[in-house]
Specification:
The complex is a heterodimer.
Chain A lengths: L1 H7 L2 H41 L6 H16 L2 H11 L8 H4 L8 H28 L2 H9 L4 H16 L1 H14 L11 H12 L3 H26 L1 H8 L1
Chain B lengths: L12 E12 L2 E12 L3 E5 L6 H8 L7 E6 L2 E2 L5 H9 L1 E4 L11 H13 L3 H14 L15 H13 L5 E5 L7 H16 L3 E5 L3 H7 L2 E6 L2 E6 L1 H6 L4 H11 L2
The chains are: A mainly alpha, B alpha/beta.
């Protein structure tokens, strides 16, 4: 028991590594927020592209479906490696894409954001699609019968309702994204797990990783509760939408 | 198939449908429908369910694509309009649905405000002023800030009528608007429609309310199996239907 406590909960290791782990966690939070917002926007674009109905948009729709299928079907880690290992060498791309250093962050940081956005955009597109398809057809018919264009019907009637119903699954995927930011360490981003590993390597003690886990929980547990509350409130919400 | 028993309409035809055919796959729902709605008149369409009444109404404002025939508004064909032109024509044709289709994420007031803002680009103040007047007209001034889910079916339907009127339509289509309502709520909705008719609104009304058709309509059309079987002024059609199918239908609904 002592061994167990010492290996995972050594307070002196936690204290000594606290600043380093917290700094890593700050990177984790940044990656999560930036990639989270970007993939919510990208996912919506993909969902709309996929849902487009006119014949003119058929190529766009097919491209969206292919994209979503591919990136939901391959591991995020693979995407991270493909992006970071290739982008710098694709010579016709502009320098700010091959080696992005926006806002003083290193290129691997942005490769991580890009990979997370590419993959989670595909997941979120499917979430949005479910929400949009759940809006009763009568809603858009009412809007169209009033003379609203297809775009305005989408913007003012369908999306506000469709997105509202999928807030819980969106938050769920955000939690998943937050945890998956740890994969970005393989290309050298020192986020919380990488920070913890470095301490583990120096001290042969895992308490810094435990500390990182605790930091995760501080954010993910309340988020999970929010999701639960939404889901419990869903029957009232559904009644409101009937 | 149609019996030209009614006198020629007095006013000019606000809305005209000619030779309308509509198929859903193998199902031939409308098989050559002709009708004319003179300006300022109320035409009621009755008939058994599945006769194509609702489909006809949905074809008139192009919610359903038609297979052949013409739809004319003020003599102008609107059958093949697309995009902006179609949106503009739809403003002139108000529609009220059986299931109300209010926007659940908006209050009663905002349901009436939103389309004015979005379609006509009115300022919020102006749209709100119109909306309040319309809600008052349908007897719901005190419910302006309620969500649809907190309103009864009859109240929701009256908000839906106010919302359609907010576009200043020249014609109103009513698609079995009282069929989803509890019996005691039907009267309020029908009263609003009576008032509207009295004010001279041109109305095409698909209904199961025979007394409303009798009292308010200038002409009643009986539809069955995708065609207008018979049309006449209500007094004649209800008391002396000239077709066997009409007689059987009226027998069933009037003496259940």
């Amino acid at each position: 028991m002592d061994i167990f406590l010492q290996q995972y909960f050594d307070l002196s290791v936690m204290r000594d590594s606290f600043d380093k782990v917290l700094l890593g966690f700050w990177v984790t939070v940044q990656l999560s927020l930036i990639a989270g917002v970007l993939s919510m926007v990208w996912g919506l674009v993909l969902a709309l592209a996929r849902g487009s109905q006119t014949r003119l948009m058929l190529p766009v729709r097919v491209a969206a479906i292919a994209y979503i299928d591919v990136f939901r079907g391959i591991p995020l880690l693979l995407v991270v490696l493909l992006i970071s290992g290739s982008l710098p060498f694709i010579s016709f791309l502009p320098a700010w894409v091959r080696a992005p250093h926006l806002f003083g962050r290193p290129d691997v940081y942005w490769f991580g954001v890009l990979s997370l956005t590419i993959t989670y955009g595909a997941y979120l597109a499917e979430v949005y699609r479910a929400g949009i398809e759940a809006v009763p057809k009568g809603q858009s018919e009412a809007a169209r019968s009033l003379g609203m264009s297809q775009f305005r019907t989408l913007r003012h009637v369908v999306l506000p309702q469709g997105v509202r119903t999928v807030v819980p699954p969106l938050l769920n995927d955000f939690i998943a994204l937050m945890k998956d930011t740890s994969l970005v360490q393989v290309i050298g981003v020192v986020e919380v797990v990488r920070a913890g590993r470095e301490v583990q390597g120096e001290t042969f003690n895992s308490s810094a990783l435990t500390l990182g886990a605790i930091m995760f929980l501080v954010l993910t547990l309340p988020l999970a509760r929010v999701v639960d509350r939404h889901l419990n409130g869903r029957h009232t919400l559904a009644r409101g939408l009937a | 198939m149609t019996a030209p028993t009614s006198p020629a309409p007095a006013g000019h035809a606000k809305l005209r449908v000619a030779g309308l055919h509509k198929r859903f796959g193998a199902l031939h729902v409308l098989r050559g429908v002709d009708l004319s709605v003179p300006a300022g008149s109320v035409i009621a369409i009755i008939g058994p369910s599945g006769s194509g009444k609702s489909t006809l109404l949905r074809c008139v404002n192009r919610l359903e694509e038609i297979d052949s025939g013409q739809i004319l508004l003020d003599g102008e064909p609107i059958t093949t309009l697309r995009g902006r032109a179609l949106d503009q024509v739809r403003r002139r044709i108000g529609m009220v649905f059986q299931q109300f289709n209010l926007f659940p994420h908006r209050t009663a007031l905002d349901n009436v405000v939103l389309p004015q803002r979005v379609v006509y680009g009115l300022s919020r103040a102006e749209a709100v002023r119109n909306a309040r007047a319309l809600l008052d007209q349908v007897g719901l001034a005190d419910k302006a800030d309620e969500r649809p889910s907190r309103l009864s079916g009859g109240q929701q339907q009256r908000v839906a009528i106010a919302r359609a009127l907010a576009m200043n339509p020249e014609v109103m289509l009513f698609d079995e608007v009282t069929s989803a309502l509890d019996p005691e709520l039907v009267t309020d909705v029908l009263d609003v429609m009576r008032t509207l008719a009295a004010q001279g609104m041109t109305m095409l009304v698909v209904t199961h309310e025979m007394s409303f058709a009798k009292d308010v309509a200038d002409e009643v059309l009986f539809m069955d199996d995708g065609v207008v079987v018979e049309r006449n002024v209500p007094a004649s059609l209800f008391s002396a239907p000239s077709h066997e199918r009409t007689r059987r239908f009226l027998d069933r609904v009037l003496n259940p």
